[in-house]
Write a structure and sequence with these properties.
The chain is of the alpha/beta class. It has 19 helices and 11 strands. The relative contact order is 0.19.
Length: 423
C-alpha cells in the first residue's frame, strides 16, 4: 500500500507510528539502551537548520570538526532538509524503520514523537548542564521527562520604523490592541500599511495574538483545546478589523528571505522573527546604521512572545546510542549554539551567552532575551503534528473570505478535538 504524507500523519495521530517502528504501544518513556557506553559507530543527523553553503561549512567544518576531535570513533552523516519537508522526512523514516540517530525538530514536536516512543528520554542531568530558563526547556519535555535540548530559539516580536513614528509624532509603542489599531490607522498612508501581521506564518501570528489576549492552545494534559472561547475568536477578529480599517493587507505579505515591508518602507510595523536583524544587516544596513528600527513585545491582556525554535533529540532505536547521545549533548553546548544562532540570527537558548557580543549587537535578540518571562510555546498535545497543519487553511477563509472569526475558530476546535480523540 502506498504511504502518502496524509496517511502517515494520520498514522502518527492515531498511534500507528509505534506499530510501524516496532516501538510498542503506550506512552512509557524509552531510554536508549547503552547510551553510557563508548561513543563509536556511524550515525546520521537530520537537520532543518544550517542552511546554505555558510551553514553547511559551519556545521561540517566547525561544529562537527570539534565533535570529531572529541569523539574520533564516531562518523556523522548529515541529512539536510527544510522545516517544510522535515515532518514528512521523519514520518517517512518512521514508516520505513529508518529514523536518523539524531534529529533536530521544532518546538511543539516533542510530545507527538515521545508519546509513540520514537525518541529516547534523556538524562535529567542535561537540563542543568547549562543555564537554561525553565520555559526554554519546557518544550523539550513530555509528561515531565526530558527528551530534547534546545539549540536556538526564534521568537515572534513586533518590529517598527522609528522614522515613521517620529514623522507621525508617535512617542511610544502600543501597549494594547486598541493602541495598536489606532497607531496602525495613523501610520497608514498611500500604499503603506500601518501594520503587517501576515508576513510570518499565519499559524504563528494568530498564536502570538491568542497568547497576548490571555488565551491558551490546550489544557495542561494536552487533551482539550482551550482556544475556542472568546480569547481565540478575538485574536482572529483583530486581523479582520485591521483589514477593514485599511491598515493591514493580507495580499501584501512578503516571502521569507525577500526584503520585508518594514525594510522597504511599505509597512510601519510588522510581526516578524528575531532573525530579521541579520537579514536587514545584509540587505539594508543603512537602517541599522541610521537607528531606524525598533522592536517591542506584543501585548493586550498580557505581554506575549511566541517562542519557536529548534531542538535536538535522539532516536529511541539508534544502533549506536552512545554516539547519538554524545552528538545531542555536543550540539547543545554554548559554542555550538552560538555558532548556529549567529548563522540564523536566532536567539541562543542559554543564559551562558547573554553577555556575548552577538547578543548585544543584535537588538532583536537582546529584546527577546530580556523578555523570556513572556515567552510562550506552541504545541502542548501529542496530536500537535496533525493539528498544526490545519490551522492556516482553517483560519485563512476568515481573513480572505467572508467567514466569521467565530465560525473559523469553532471549525478549528472541532478538528483539534477530533485529532486529540484519535490519540
Amino acid at each position: 500500500m502506498e504511504l502518502t504524507r496524509r496517511s502517515m500523519l494520520a498514522a502518527i495521530g492515531a498511534g500507528g507510528a509505534a506499530a510501524l517502528t516496532g516501538c510498542g504501544t503506550g506512552t512509557g518513556s524509552v531510554s536508549a539502551g547503552s547510551a553510557d557506553g563508548p561513543a563509536e559507530g556511524e550515525i546520521t543527523l537530520l537537520t532543518p537548520i544550517y542552511e546554505g553553503s555558510n551553514g553547511k561549512t559551519l556545521l561540517e567544518k566547525e561544529i562537527l570538526g570539534g565533535f570529531r576531535k572529541k569523539y574520533p570513533d564516531v562518523k556523522v552523516n548529515v541529512d539536510y532538509t527544510t522545516y517544510t519537508q522535515l515532518n514528512e522526512k521523519i514520518t517517512t523514516g518512521l514508516a520505513g524503520g529508518l529514523l536518523p540517530d539524531v534529529l533536530m525538530m521544532g518546538v511543539g514536536w516533542i510530545p507527538p514523537f515521545a508519546s509513540k516512543n520514537a525518541i529516547a528520554e534523556l538524562p535529567e542531568r542535561l537540563a542543568s548542564a547549562h543555564q537554561y530558563e525553565e520555559r526554554v526547556l519546557d518544550p523539550s519535555r513530555y509528561e515531565g521527562k526530558l527528551y530534547a535540548l534546545p539549540v536556538v530559539l526564534d521568537t515572534r516580536i513586533v518590529v517598527y520604523r522609528k522614522d515613521h513614528f517620529a514623522e507621525a509624532g508617535i512617542k511610544k509603542t502600543p501597549a494594547t490592541w486598541a493602541e495598536l489599531r489606532a497607531v496602525a490607522k495613523q501610520l497608514t498612508t498611500g500604499d503603506r500599511v500601518g501594520f503587517d501581521p501576515f508576513s510570518i506564518e499565519l499559524r504563528q501570528c494568530w498564536e502570538t495574538f491568542l497568547f497576548a489576549n490571555g488565551g491558551q492552545l490546550f489544557s495542561a494534559d494536552g487533551k482539550k483545546a482551550l482556544f475556542t472561547g472568546d480569547r481565540g475568536v478575538e485574536a482572529l477578529q483583530f486581523f479582520k478589523d485591521l483589514i477593514a480599517d485599511g491598515s493591514a493587507d493580507y495580499a501584501k505579505k512578503t516571502d521569507v528571505g525577500a526584503p520585508s515591508n518594514v525594510q522597504t518602507g511599505k509597512a510601519s510595523m510588522m510581526m516578524t522573527s528575531s532573525a530579521l536583524w541579520v537579514q536587514v544587516a545584509q540587505q539594508n544596513p543603512e537602517l541599522i546604521e541610521g537607528d531606524k528600527l525598533g522592536s517591542f513585545v506584543l501585548a493586550n491582556r498580557r505581554p506575549a512572545m511566541l517562542q519557536g525554535g529548534t531542538l535536538v533529540t535522539q532516536s529511541a532505536r539508534s544502533k549506536h546510542p552512545a554516539a547519538a547521545r554524545a552528538l545531542v549533548e555536543y550540539l547543545a553546548t554554548p559554542e555550538s549554539i552560538l555558532g548556529a544562532a549567529k548563522q540564523r540570527g536566532s536567539v541562543p537558548g542559554l543564559r551562558d551567552l547573554d553577555d556575548t557580543g552577538y547578543v548585544k549587537e543584535n537588538q532583536f535578540v537582546d529584546l527577546s532575551l530580556q523578555n523570556l518571562e513572556h515567552a510562550v510555546s506552541e504545541g502542548g498535545t501529542a496530536a500537535w503534528m496533525e493539528i498544526r497543519e490545519k490551522i492556516k487553511p482553517t483560519l485563512e477563509p476568515a481573513i480572505v473570505g467572508g467567514q466569521s472569526a467565530k465560525d473559523a475558530i469553532a471549525e478549528l476546535g472541532r478538528l483539534a478535538e477530533a485529532a486529540i480523540g484519535r490519540m
